[in-house]
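User: Phage holin family protein. Structure?
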Amino acid sequence: MAIDKILENVLRYIESRFELFKLEIEESVSIALVRLIQGLIIGILGVFVLLFFSWGVANALNVWLNSTFVGYFLVGGIYLILMLAILSRSGEEKLKQKIEGKVSGMFDKQKKKIDTEGNTEAMLENDVYRNNSEI
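Assistant: Predicted structure:
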């Protein structure tokens, strides 16, 4: 009978650990998804702001230069120079490392949050202890 209780408690402990693991993964994925959606919304709105601002500057240059197309080429040229400068300074590997660092940092922050809210191991041990006292 004592072995049955121990086995039952071990199984409860394993089930609790598994459920906790699933909840932690679910929380991390949901936080990542929310940040991704927020980033996409901000990015899309940023593109619209940049587009309309550039269009306005190009039209202002066209009026100032008394032309119908030179302002658009000037604004496009400025963006081309800016893009080439950014591409020349950042290699693909640096960009990849930066993105990986951001993603792993996001999950590390979530893990630290869980650790600061309370030691999950101690919570599970208390749960098993509480189950033992009920028997």
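Helices lie at 2-65, 70-89, 92-117, 120-134. The chain has a mean pLDDT of 81.
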